[in-house]
Amino acid sequence: MADVETSSLVVEAASVDMEKQELEEGEIASTEATTPAPEPALEARHPLEHGWTFWFDNPNGKTKQAAWGSSLRPVYTFKTVEEFWCLYNNVLQPSQLSPGADFHCFKVGIEPKWEDPKCAQGGKWSTSTPNKGSSNKAILDQYWLHTLLAMIGEQFEEYDEVCGAVVSVRARQDKIALWTKTASNEAAQVSVGKQWKSLLDITDKIGYLVHEDAKRLDKHAKNKYTV
């Protein structure tokens, strides 16, 4: 389909029904999804340390909602390596989403909201692709995949600090953020930031914004840490 509408981003239940979870009509999926390989035997799967949930927000491509998070919804929860790749290979890449859309991937039990108890005292590291264009869209997809693999593969030394990640597709500039839970722990946040920057091979500085500052000061909030 030439013009991919965000409302048609549906994860086909047949392709990710590894635990018999049903997805609601209208959820995220690739229009070029292929039939996954046969489900491996349970004993052959590779369990992850934590379960993770994919979330999707803003399906109509609007940058403003009557109530923030009103369109935020969980898509699928995966707990093994095989389930992750089954899901990842059957959803759209960030570069294919409509402007205004967000993908989230958070540990099970944590909602991608400032108000969540495990996020309330935290903040986020963030970076963006500098300009529009096919090459930068490819970089966005690469950033997203490498961030996901680092999270689910526990590649961060301060792994317990990591809550999840968000990729935001915008008309002017695409962004990706890594959320952590304890903004006051400078050593932990700097460690996570440096490792993330290295994993993505970013040369420019990246900043850490505290959620509480963002809520109080909005666009005037300043980064608490930079690496």
UniProtKB/TrEMBL annotation:
PROSITE patterns: IF4E (PS00813). Keywords: Disulfide bond, Initiation factor, Protein biosynthesis, RNA-binding, Translation regulation. One of its GO terms (molecular function) is RNA binding. GO terms for biological process: regulation of translation. It comes from the Eukaryota. The keyword Protein biosynthesis applies. Residues 15-38 are annotated as: Disordered. The keyword Zinc does not apply. PANTHER family: EUKARYOTIC TRANSLATION INITIATION FACTOR 4E RELATED (PTHR11960), EUKARYOTIC TRANSLATION INITIATION FACTOR 4E1-RELATED (PTHR11960:SF8). Belongs to the eukaryotic initiation factor 4E family. This is eIF-4F 25 kDa subunit.
